[in-house]
Write a structure and sequence with these properties.
Layout (H helix, E strand, L loop, with lengths): L2 H33 L19 H5 L8 H8 L7 H10 L3 H10 L3 H4 L3 H11 L3 H4 L5 H9 L1 H13 L1 H17 L11 E6 L2 E6 L4 E2 L2 E3 L1 H4 L2 H5 L20 E3 L3 E2 L10 E4 L4 E4 L1 H7 L19 H29 L14 E3 L4 E3 L29
Antiparallel strand pairs: 1-2, 3-6, 4-5, 7-8, 9-10
Helix pairs in contact: 3-11, 5-9, 7-15, 9-10, 10-11
């Protein structure tokens, strides 16, 4: 066969392979159709539908905002608190875990007995937020907030998300208590009630004395409490007795001046629904604090655990050193005095004294001058008579 014939055969084979490859897809689709499988349209290319990024998020409806009745229920147990104490509770509720730790810390009698600078140093070593430190003078309140930790967390979340609505609910409850005749000045409250327009403010009458009001929200707020559902009620402390015709009692007044600088560094601005902070006094309790814009309080993240642990370790180390030094000094006072050696006899060799004793009545001449008795080869003095 000639060369031209071989070339023609090769070209024919190549063309057959190309046609078979092009028709393979069509044959495969015909075969699938024959077997009963669905076949996409040949003229259109199908692309898989994009899956949603978060299928669970599409199925979960957005949580509705809290209703007015829910705000009333949250702030009901604390609405009649004096403004300085109310502000501290609102801020501390945003740190529920620290509130629980502070309640456990106060169960130790030695910690509970601290005061003044010693208390301030111990609290700073714990690394808690100053709002939690400010509640230490009120151990029963801290215990209640720790026991009702769900309520504390809900109050903190509501105050962070909608502080204006929370403060508005407080004012609504105060007006309801005033209308019901349950918000009034008594000798036990140590407070002053001031009304400016629609704002009711409760301030301590004596700057350093604070009393906590005790009441049942379902009774103290009259008809408004009846409209609210499932009001939160704090357990009444033991020993509280209500006077006839009164729905609000008061615990014993606490002198907060005994607790150092942890109290009195904030105030509530009711007109603008915010809490204003005294920066200088705040920095005493939080040395790493940078500052608030316009002195308006915002929640600060708690310090890292390792920093709290290091502070606690330093304080613990100092305490251990102090305890060891105190124990050593106490033991030294009780050590037996070592008796002195008995006097040497009048004569004879005494190895413990390395001298010769002289017989009774011996006359000892005065020692020679020291420069005469100096050793010439090592410079030491010696007694030529012994």
């Amino acid at each position: 066969m000639s060369g031209w014939g071989e070339r023609a055969i090769a070209v024919g084979l190549a063309a057959g392979l190309i046609c078979g490859a092009l028709s393979g897809k069509s044959n495969a689709q015909d075969m699938l159709s024959t077997l009963g499988f669905p076949v996409p349209d040949r003229g259109t290319a199908t692309t898989p539908a994009a899956a949603p990024a978060n299928p669970a998020a599409a199925s979960i409806p957005a949580a509705p905002p809290p209703s007015e009745a829910q705000f009333v229920n949250l702030v009901g147990p604390i609405a009649l608190y004096p403004d300085p104490l109310l502000g501290q509770v609102l801020m501390a509720s945003t740190y529920p875990h620290e509130v629980s730790e502070a309640a456990r810390w106060l169960r130790v009698p030695a910690d509970r007995a601290l005061g003044g600078e010693a208390l301030t140093a111990a609290l700073k070593a714990r690394g808690w937020n100053p709002s939690v430190m400010a509640l230490v003078p009120f151990p029963s309140l801290l215990t209640t907030m720790a026991e009702k930790l769900d309520w504390t967390e809900q109050l903190g979340k509501a105050f962070l998300a909608q502080p204006g609505e929370v403060m508005a609910a407080v004012q609504r409850l105060r007006h309801a208590a005033l209308a019901a005749g349950n918000l009034k000045v008594t000798p036990e409250c140590h407070c002053v009630i001031q009304t400016t327009g629609d704002i009711i403010s409760i301030q301590p009458s004596e700057g350093q004395m604070v009393s906590i009001p005790v009441y049942d929200p379902a009774v103290a707020f009259g008809a408004l409490a009846e409209a609210a559902h499932s009001p939160v009620v704090f357990q009444l402390p033991a020993g509280i007795v209500f006077a006839p015709g009164t729905a609000v009692g008061f615990s014993s007044a606490i002198e907060v001046a005994l607790f150092g600088p942890i109290w009195g560094w904030e105030s509530i601005d009711w007109a603008k629904r915010r809490i204003v902070v005294d920066e200088e006094r705040y920095k005493v309790l939080a040395p790493g604090h940078i500052g608030f814009d316009d002195n308006v309080w915002v929640r600060e993240p708690p310090p890292p655990p390792h920093k709290i642990a290091s502070k606690t370790q330093i304080v613990a180390t100092r305490s251990v050193r102090h305890a060891k030094a105190k124990a050593k000094a106490k033991a030294s006072r009780h050590l037996a005095v070592t008796p002195a050696l008995p006097p040497p006899p009048l004569y004879g060799w005494q190895p413990q004294y390395r001298v010769w004793g002289l017989p009774p009545g011996a006359i000892v001449p005065p020692p020679p001058p020291r420069y005469i008795a100096r050793n010439w080869y090592n410079g030491y003095y010696y007694d030529a008579y012994r």
